[in-house]
């Protein structure tokens, strides 16, 4: 109520001030000439008013809001204020005041001496307002079913009891970010800088736990984390060179390190039937400390070179949880009580830019990133699967993953005439990795483009990209050791050849009209892959126009179509004779289509003192998954999945009317309608918490129709 009273009081005050200013015929945004009864320093504006959101029946309010807070109520937002003189400048911003997505920022600049900035930003994430769960939180990270598993285990009730016991709750989280930065000019050539950034994440998000394929649960995992980033640097600038030395640190803390939840089918531990509870480790505390040095040197012939080197250490030493929570099993001993994980990170970047002759530019860049995992091997002789089955662990311990990535970029640009440009680029990336199928991969890429604007009303651009990746040191035994097909290739390291062609056409037949079109075609093939992603194709086209007959009217519209298809191959087989049986192969052909239409119209002062902006957006996307079998298949017939699709229509209207030199009245309207059908998140499918083989949160996607209206008064000074 205090916020509401303050906004109402300030609104009346500003309206009175604006009316008086209008009577005195004050020129806009020049308060020093005739400020009226409310004298405010500097220049600024603020919106005050009331916002209302009306939803259609059974609308998904969380999906409509997602990363914004559109609750009904009074608001004060878009507050902007700035002032400056020959020595100092200030500016302040505040928006969505008092709501979950509020943001505040302030900047101070004492010219040539001190710069400081501060930002406070809250970002909500609304998952669902209708999720349900039978779990209750008895302490942070401990979720209970309140004795219901005892009834299920004894046979007094079935798992359907959990649907009756489930209660509805809002599933949401929020990030709160504070960011402070400072630059102090100690001398004309030396700047000292520092920053402090703190992000707190709180709330809940969807999570999953399992006691086996027939006993899984969805959980609202609690979030209570903090990430703190700090840094300091000294930078010296001269006429021909710059040097910077800096330190950066990032520290993550999680106040809920372990999640424990009740088994819905059991209330007592059993060495064969399973435990009464499940347990898993959540995100561990970790630290990253990095020191860096960089330099820039200006060279003859319009050239310059830069260099950057950083050395960092990543560490994590959280306590380890036992192999099992099942009290009826003897947990294998831990090799050590804490993670004792660490890695050294070395990153470099070197660039050279030059214009040796007129119309020719040359650029070269080399980057490297070395992740040297120093974590000692964690020896494991025995483990426990699903908290029920003690078994030997064949690898005998962990495999510390390390990699080194090196990337070279070379490109040249030639502009023989004012109206044309030609560019060629080459990139080579090498990645050396441990404990992957390939010891190393090499990626060679070529890019060619041409631009032509020689015709006065026509602009053309064409670009071709070629990408070829090859892996060496293949270790198929590593796949066999983990029970995978030896011809499986992970998509990020598999041998591949890719081609992509794109073009842009812009025509200006008259000065007020611009017509544009784009298109792209891409082909990605992986001929050496037996199982996994075999191919990935992309296609797209768009057309649009902008028409600006004068300063008062602006019209525009566009249409875009995109299509992405993929082919993957797998084998349905258990260990034994099935494992090498090609008649058990199957494929998945994926196809994604998207249609996007946008249109806008602005009428600025077409009518006296009136601005009107209109916009329309339409998006329709669908995805299909088509399963295929070999001609001589021994697998049962396939049941194809239904098409997944969604459609969104959005209309926005923003109108404002200038009442006085300092006062505007405005009205904004949003209409948005979303419809979809997704078999994985369909309310008709997830119509109960107690599914046949798992407990669901009933986190679904369902349609919404929303109307949001703002009535606002803008005061300017």
**Which residues form runs of ≥5 with pLDDT under 50?**
1-38
Largest sheet: 26 strands, antiparallel, barrel
Average pLDDT reading:
92
- Oligomerization: single chain
Principal-axes shape call: globular
Classify the helix fraction into a percent range: under 10%
Number of strands: 33
The termini sit apart by 27 Å
Query: Into which percentage range does the β-strand content fall?
Result: over 45%
Number of helices: 5
- Rg estimate, integer Å: 31 Å
Broad structural category: mainly beta
Q: What's the gist of this structure?
A:
With 717 residues, the chain is mainly beta.
Characterise this structure:
- The chain has helices at 2-23, 61-65, 148-154, 161-165, 476-481, and strands at residues 43-55, 73-84, 88-95, 103-110, 114-133, 136-139, 142-144, 167-185, 190-210, 216-237, 241-254, 258-262, 277-281, 286-299, 303-316, 341-357, 360-373, 382-385, 389-392, 403-414, 420-433, 440-452, 458-472, 496-510, 513-525, 532-550, 553-571, 585-607, 610-629, 644-658, 663-677, 694-695, 704-716.
- The chain has 717 residues and is mainly beta.
- It has a 26-stranded antiparallel beta barrel. The chain has a four-stranded mixed sheet with strand order 6-7-12-13, with no helix packed on it.
- A hairpin with a 2-residue loop joins strand 24 (496-510) and strand 25.
- It is globular, with a radius of gyration of 31 Å.
- Mean pLDDT is 92; it is low at 1-38.
């Amino acid at each position: 109520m205090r916020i509401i009273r303050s906004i109402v009081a300030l609104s009346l005050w500003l309206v009175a001030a604006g009316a008086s200013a209008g009577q005195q015929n004050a020129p806009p945004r020049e308060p020093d000439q005739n400020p009226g009864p409310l004298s405010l320093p500097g220049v600024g504006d603020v919106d005050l008013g009331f916002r209302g959101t009306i939803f259609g029946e059974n609308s998904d309010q969380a999906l409509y809001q997602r990363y914004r807070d559109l609750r009904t109520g009074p608001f004060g937002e878009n507050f902007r204020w700035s002032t400056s003189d020959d020595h100092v400048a200030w500016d302040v911003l505040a928006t969505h005041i008092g709501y979950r997505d509020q943001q505040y920022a302030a900047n101070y600049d004492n010219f040539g001496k001190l710069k400081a900035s501060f930002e406070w930003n809250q970002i909500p994430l609304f998952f669902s307002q209708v999720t349900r769960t039978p779990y209750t939180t008895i302490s942070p990270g401990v979720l209970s079913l309140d004795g219901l598993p005892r009834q299920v285990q004894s046979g007094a009730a079935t798992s359907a009891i959990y649907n009756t016991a489930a209660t509805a709750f809002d599933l949401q989280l929020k990030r709160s970010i504070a960011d402070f930065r400072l630059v102090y000019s100690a001398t004309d050539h030396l700047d000292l800088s520092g920053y402090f950034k703190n992000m707190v994440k709180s709330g809940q998000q969807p999570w999953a736990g399992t006691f086996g394929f027939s006993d899984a649960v969805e959980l609202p995992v609690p979030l209570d984390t903090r990430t703190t980033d700090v840094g300091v640097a000294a930078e010296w600038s001269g006429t021909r060179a710059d040097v910077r030395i800096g330190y950066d640190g990032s520290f993550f803390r999680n106040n809920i390190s372990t999640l424990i939840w009740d088994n819905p089918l059991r209330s007592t531990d059993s060495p064969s039937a399973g435990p009464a509870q499940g347990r898993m480790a959540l995100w561990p505390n970790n630290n990253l400390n990095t020191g860096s040095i960089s330099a820039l040197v200006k060279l003859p012939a319009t050239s310059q070179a830069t260099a950057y080197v950083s050395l960092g250490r990543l560490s994590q030493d959280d306590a380890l949880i036992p192999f099992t929570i099942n009290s009826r099993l003897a947990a294998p001993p831990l090799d050590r009580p804490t993670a004792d994980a660490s890695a050294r990170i070395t990153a470099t970047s070197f660039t050279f830019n030059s214009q040796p002759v007129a119309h020719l530019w040359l650029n070269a860049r080399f980057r490297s990133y070395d992740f040297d995992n120093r974590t000692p091997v964690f020896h494991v002789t025995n483990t426990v699967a699903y908290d029920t089955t003690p078994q030997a662990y064949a690898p005998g311990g962990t495999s510390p993953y390390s990699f080194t990535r090196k990337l070279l970029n070379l490109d040249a640009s030639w502009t023989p005439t004012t109206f044309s440009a030609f560019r060629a680029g080459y990139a080579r990336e090498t990645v050396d990795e441990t404990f992957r199928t390939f010891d190393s991969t090499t990626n060679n890429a070529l890019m060619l483009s041409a631009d032509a604007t020689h015709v006065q009303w026509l602009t053309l651009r064409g670009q071709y990209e070629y990408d070829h990746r090859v892996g060496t040191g293949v270790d198929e035994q590593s796949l066999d050791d983990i029970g995978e097909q030896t011809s499986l290739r992970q998509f990020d390291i598999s041998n591949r050849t890719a081609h992509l062609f794109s073009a842009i056409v812009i025509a200006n037949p008259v000065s007020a009209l611009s017509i544009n079109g784009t298109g792209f075609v891409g082909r990605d093939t992986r001929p050496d892959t037996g199982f996994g992603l075999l191919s990935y194709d992309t296609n797209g086209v768009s057309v649009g126009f902008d028409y600006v007959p004068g300063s008062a009217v602006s019209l525009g519209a566009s249409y875009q179509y995109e299509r992405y298809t993929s082919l993957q191959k797998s084998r349905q087989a258990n260990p034994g004779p099935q494992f090498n049986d090609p008649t058990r192969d199957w494929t998945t052909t994926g196809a994604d289509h998207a249609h996007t239409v946008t249109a806008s119209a602005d009428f600025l002062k077409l009518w006296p003192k009136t601005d009107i902006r209109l916009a329309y957006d339409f998006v329709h996307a669908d995805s299909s998954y088509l399963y295929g079998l070999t001609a001589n298949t021994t697998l049962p017939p396939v049941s194809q999945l239904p098409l997944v699709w969604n459609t969104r229509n959005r209309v926005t209207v923003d109108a404002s009317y200038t009442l006085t030199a300092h006062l505007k009245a405005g009205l904004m309207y949003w209409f948005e309608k979303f419809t979809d059908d997704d078999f994985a998140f369909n309310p008709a499918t997830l119509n109960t918490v107690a599914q046949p083989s798992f407990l669901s949160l009933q986190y679904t996607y369902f349609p919404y129709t929303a109307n949001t209206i703002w009535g606002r008064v803008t005061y300017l000074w």
